Amino acid sequence: MENILQEIDEASQFMASRVKAKPGVGIILGTGLGGLVEKIFIEESIPYEEIPYFLHSTVEGHAGRLIFGHCSDKEVLVMQGRFHFYEGYPLSRVTFPVRVMKKLGIKTLIISNAAGGLNPLFSAGDIMVISDHINFTGQNPLIGPNLEAFGQRFPDMSAVYDRKLIAISEQVALEKQIKLQRGVYVGVAGPSMETPAETRFLRMMGADAVGMSTIPEVIVGVHCGLHILGFSAISNVNRPDCMEPAPFEEILANAALAGKKMIGIIEGVLEKI
Ligand code: HPA
């Protein structure tokens, strides 16, 4: 435990030596959603390899750099490329950047992912603002000694996704005439996709979209008291009774399509907070 605290300190001190400002908003960009970076006035871009104790991204569509800059006149710290449990990393490492962001003074975390739609009313290319989640990964990043410096042993999960931020997102979507779905994200470990029977089960559980990321970072974010706003880019829709393969190229293409709309919403949210 001492080690991880020290590593978080070292990584955040390194970042603070490179970035003088104190951004209040952190953004994690998921698969195919790197397009937001074009909207950022980049002050500093640091490849993950250079940051002490950061992992390196191994997934296609994930660039692997931490960007500090301005978006809609707000200072932001952006993770372009994230880490997944299915890459074989322990969750303490997957979520390490969230704690580094917290140390750097982030108050709000905007987190995005590509996800498979389970709600039959969704279409590929839609955006969903996450209203709640189901942790179905079989894992929890907080297992192990509690990091008291960050938060308490049994963090409350009764209102994980900030209701005010959801309302602002919905208002922005209305103003910009972007269709915005709202629903429950279920996180699985992956990397295999779901069978039709699993898909039916996840839908019956009450989920609207399924993905392989986000939950660990969100749990660690809640633990350390961040305001969380989450978006899923619906890259494919899974219908258990007529299930079709969702090739990775298609997922990337649809995530990028949805990503364009998501960027519009995130820009609008940043203007209003
Ligand atoms: N299942 C799980 N993860 C995903 C999917 C899916 O259908 N699409 C994008 N990420």
What small-molecule ligands were found?
A: hypoxanthine
What global shape is seen? globular
- Intertermini distance: 35 Å
Tell me about the biggest sheet?
A: 5 strands, mixed, barrel
Search tags:
alpha/beta, Rossmann fold, globular, 273 residues, 9 strands, binds hypoxanthine, 5-stranded mixed barrel, single chain
Account of the protein in words:
The chain has 273 residues and is α/β, with parallel strands linked by helices. The protein has a single domain (2-272), classed as Nucleoside phosphorylase domain (Rossmann fold, 3-Layer(aba) Sandwich). The chain contains 7 helices and 9 strands. Strands 5-8-7-6-9 form a 5-stranded mixed beta barrel. β3 (65-71) and β4 form a beta hairpin. α4 crosses α7. The radius of gyration is 17 Å and the shape is globular. The mean pLDDT is 93. The structure holds hypoxanthine (HPA). Hypoxanthine (HPA) binds next to β5, β8 and β9.
Secondary structure: elements and pairs:
Layout: H1 2-18, E1 25-29, E2 41-47, E3 65-71, E4 74-80, H2 91-94, H3 96-103, E5 108-117, E6 127-135, H4 163-176, E7 180-187, H5 196-204, E8 209-211, H6 215-223, E9 227-237, H7 248-272
Parallel strand pairs: 1-4, 1-5, 5-9, 6-7, 7-8
Antiparallel strand pairs: 2-3, 3-4, 5-8, 6-9
Bound molecules: hypoxanthine (HPA).
Hypoxanthine (HPA) is lined by residues 114-116, 193-194, 210-212, 235-236, 238, 246, 251.
